Amino acid sequence: MKIERVKDDMVGLRRTWMIRHDVFVEEQNWPVEEEVDEFDHDPRTTHVIAVSDEGEDLATARIIFEEPGRVRITRVAVNSHARGDGVGKELMKGVARIALEDYAVDGQVHLVLAAQEHAVPFYETLGYTRAEGGYEYVGIKHFEMDQTITA
Questions:
Q1: Residues 6 or more apart whose Cβ sits within 8 Å of residue 62
Q2: Opening angle at CA 15, ends 9 and 19, nearest 5
Q3: What pTM value is reported for the model?
Q4: Which residue, 30, 107, 111, 140, could crosslink 151 as a Cys pair with Cβ 3.0–4.6 Å?
């Protein structure tokens, strides 16, 4: 499997949208109008995709620049048939590597994300810390999580 940046064109974006549509709209019943947003076309957004050795797109995420040394990771989605095989972990390791390469200040970058409640334990295994409280987004409980990583 390889983790790669998606070309910022409609072909590349459609690859990510297909995975996100399957996971968020079809599986989790998000309103379709909530799934694609202004960050998809923002030049400060980096789209990332996990591709199998056979060339199948398995998972995606996007990295949104917030300020020097700080990014927000959003729209993390793994196709249902690829879950449980370490794809999500490899995707997030690749996202962290790309965030360090592209957004680090003095060799470190602060990663922030909003985890769906069921995914909190997964992110904790990757070193993220959950903030207190939580909130609903598209009918799903989310928690802010973060960590700082260094090169």
A1: 16, 39, 40, 45, 46, 47, 48, 73, 74, 75
A2: 145
A3: 0.93
A4: 107
